[in-house]
Structures are given as C-alpha cells and as structure tokens.
Amino acid sequence: MVCGEPIDLRPAGLQDAALLLLWRNDPLTRRFSINDAVVGWDEHIAWLEASLAMETRQLLVAVRGRPVGLVRIDRDEATEMSWTVAPDARGQGVGRSMLAAALPIRGRIVARIKSDNVASRRLASRVGFALLEPGPLERWELVRPIPDQPPASSPSG
Ligand SMILES: CC(C)(COP(=O)(O)OP(=O)(O)OC[C@H]1O[C@@H](n2cnc3c(N)ncnc32)[C@H](O)[C@@H]1OP(=O)(O)O)[C@@H](O)C(=O)NCCC(=O)NCCS
Fold first, then answer.
1. How confident is the model at residue 106, as a pLDDT?
2. Could you identify the atom of ligand 1 that is nearest to the CA of residue 32?
3. Binding site membership of 129 for ligand 1 (Cβ less than 6 Å)
4. Across 40-157, where does the E strand assignment appear?
C-alpha cells in the first residue's frame, strides 16, 4: 500500500527505461497522450537518451517506496509540464503529491490536457492550474500557488 508515505522526486536515468516504457505504453496513458502510438524499445531508448541530454528538459521520477510516477518539465518561453502515474498507483493521491513536490517553478507554467481526461483535469485544478484555452486538447496554466501536499491518510497507510 503506498498511501501515507511521503513522495520524493529524483532525476530519471537510463536505469528507469523499462519502467518508463511500461508506463508509456499503458493503454490509459496512450489514450490521453498527444501521440498515442505504441512505442518500441529502440525508439524509447533514443527518446530517453535525447531527453536526458537536453538542458531544457527535466524528467523526474516520483518515488513513494518505489517509483510511482513521472513528471516531465520542458522549459521554453513558458514551461510545459506533463505527468503520468504508474497504472497500479493511480487514484491514491500520487499525482497530487508529486505535482506539489515538483512545483513551484518560476515563470509561466502550462499543461496540455485532452478534454475527456477527467482525472488529469481534476488533478490540474487541484494543484492550481486553470483552463486557459478550451478545445479537444486544452491548454491549462498555473494561476495560483499550489496548496500544501494533502495530509497523509494515516500513519500506516
Ligand atoms: C491523470 C493521473 C496523472 C492522475 O494521477 P492520480 O495519482 O491518479 O491522481 P490523484 O489520486 O492525485 O487524484 C487527483 C484528482 O483526480 C481525481 N481522480 C483520480 N482518478 C480519477 C478518475 N479515474 N476519475 C475521476 N477523477 C479521478 C481524484 O479524485 C482527485 O480529485 P479530488 O482531489 O477532487 O478528489 C493518472 O490517472 C494517470 O497517470 N493517467 C494516465 C496518464 C495521463 O492521463 N496523464 C496526464 C496526461 S495530461
């Protein structure tokens, strides 16, 4: 059980490749990704190596006893954030805690969310994003300081 433990963020590395590919190819992740194609191993490794070498990109693995999520941060004129929670850790507050840990970041912070992604829209609004541009692929922007991390549900989880 993962509830009740604090969340840490650490930079992703090549050792995370297999887990990140598993999360990337999860059907729900794909359904709500801008590119919904299944990604193969070689393509994934090339993407991960390139991402790790980019000065403008940060990949942060959320750890709650074990890796439970990924936050991607791309710095451009605005900073774009995207997120995924491990399929077996969803609906337990991981998304909220890991975004609370990843923020605040200076400057404009935006996110793109498919309009039928109820969980991600709710998560975004919980941590201080507001809908900026409606449409099938919505643009959200952080408009207020994020609230404190939610209290642990119980010491024993
Ligand atoms: C979207 C996602 C990151 C949410 O992470 P999570 O850890 O499950 O979310 P949390 O448990 O922190 O919950 C955040 C909010 O979403 C709500 N929520 C979570 N799962 C939900 C679901 N399946 N349906 C509706 N609401 C849901 C929670 O109730 C909570 O809202 P509340 O504070 O008002 O109660 C996760 O479901 C996921 O990885 N989905 C697949 C990939 C994806 O969609 N990535 C985002 C692309 S923009």
1. 82
2. 44
3. no
4. 57-63, 67-75, 79-85, 109-114, 129-133, 137-142
Tell me if 44 is assigned to some domain: yes
Ligand 1 pocket test target in 70, 85, 113, 127 with most atoms within 8 Å of CB = 85
CATH of the domain at 121: 3.40.630.30
Q: Taking residues 106-115, what's their average pLDDT?
A: 94
Residue 150 lies in a domain: no
Full domain range(s) for residue 111: 8-142
Q: Is 149 a pocket residue for ligand 1 (Cβ < 6 Å)? A: no
pTM of the model: 0.90
CB of 26 within 6 A of ligand 1: the answer is no
Query: Is the CB–ligand 1 distance for residue 83 below 6 Å?
Result: yes
Our answer on whether the CB atom of 113 is closer than 6 Å to any ligand 1 atom is yes
Strands 79-85 and 109-114: parallel
Q: What is the mean pLDDT of residues 100-126?
A: 94
Domain count, the chain: 1
The answer to whether the CB of 72 falls within 8 A of the CB of 90 is no
Question: pLDDT averaged over the chain?
Answer: 91
Higher per-residue confidence, 104 vs 48: 48
